[in-house]
Amino acid sequence: MSTYYIHDGRNEVGPFSIDLLKKQKLTRNTPIRQMGTDNWMPAEKLAPLKGVVTPGKIKRPQDIVPVIKDRVAYLKERRPKVLYGSLFLIALIAGVSLYTVTKTEAKALSPVVVPRPSEIVARYSTQSTPTVVVLKEEKKPPVVAEDKAKATRLRWNKLIHAANSNYGIGFLGGIKDLSVVITNRTDYPIDEAVAKITYIKSNGSIWKTKLITIYGVPAHDSKEQSVPDVGRGKKVKVSIQKIVSKKMKFSYTEGQKIKSPDDPYVIQ
Predict the structure, then answer these.
(1) What is the pLDDT of residue 122?
(2) Are 244 and 250 within 8 A, CB to CB?
(3) Of 257, 163, 235, 241, nearest in space to 196 by CA
């Protein structure tokens, strides 16, 4: 039986059988790989999971009405006491609710007695000067959006992930049908994401690296970019080379010098 791992945006979790995968909360772009391989793919590309990650068909009213009619007909013929008792109970509940609403509205609309001008003057003349009490409104500290963005910048590598899809290998080597998937689990859209693909030969040495740029990855979503086929290599490894998010004020490039230890990736 095949087992699989999933990536939750922070860690690799598993292994799971197909039956256990169906019980997980998967989106169509959740990265999944089979045990024994390093090939990640979106959940929607795993055939047994297509029915799980795709929303089910919503029943229309015309599909439900015949079922209700058949049930009422059955109760009327076989169990009339149950049917009439249920109808009586529904009518009683509706009557009590209507009475309560009517009584509440009548109370709200009770007549207001407006005093005559002479009564107002007499009442005012007999009262002492009222004391005015001014209540100071408690000031609440404003919510600083920058604090939230900073917290996200400091843990970006746990929320943004790059992975490869499933791919094919030629008889004499070569990688084909490869895609790169960028998963963004932050509250901010990514303007630009650059992934580095490392092609590895059968002896474990690196053949070459290639950069793939993906633009506009929405918040809490993933985006996939296909990669041209190559004629060499037996394996690939995908990592993040660069991430830019203007909404998060975030800019990261692999190997860049840290400007501020307190907030190393903020756009100055």
Answers:
(1) 55
(2) yes
(3) 241
On whether the CB atoms of residues 89 and 78 are closer than 8 A, the answer is: no
Distance, CA of 179 to CA of 62 (rounded, Å)? 43
Question: What span, in angstroms and rounded, lies between the C-alpha atoms of 37 and 17?
Answer: 15
Strands (E) in 166-234, as ranges, are 168-169, 175-176, 178-184, 190-200, 206-217, 221-227
pLDDT at 56: 40
Q: What is the DSSP letter of 48?
A: G
- Predicted confidence at residue 95, as pLDDT, reads 86
pLDDT of residue 241: 94
Q: What's residue 96's pLDDT? A: 85
The Cα 156–Cα 242 span in angstroms is: 12
- Between CA 180 and CA 195 the distance in angstroms is 8
Distances 60 to 65, 72, 216 between C-alpha atoms, Å = 9, 19, 36
Contact 154, 145 (CB under 8 A): no
Classify residue 160 by burial, with Cβ atoms within 10 Å: 0-12, 13-18, 19+. buried
Mean pLDDT by 10 residues, the chain (268 residues): 77 80 78 83 77 54 60 72 84 86 64 58 54 64 74 92 92 89 95 95 92 95 94 92 93 86 86
Q: Residue 33 has what pLDDT?
A: 84
Question: In which residue are the tokens 């633009």 written?
Answer: 215
* CB within 8 Å of 42: residues ≥ 6 apart: 28, 29, 30, 31, 32, 165, 181, 222, 224
How far apart are the C-alpha atoms of 44 and 181, rounded to whole Å? Answer: 13
The three-class DSSP label of residue 163 is: strand
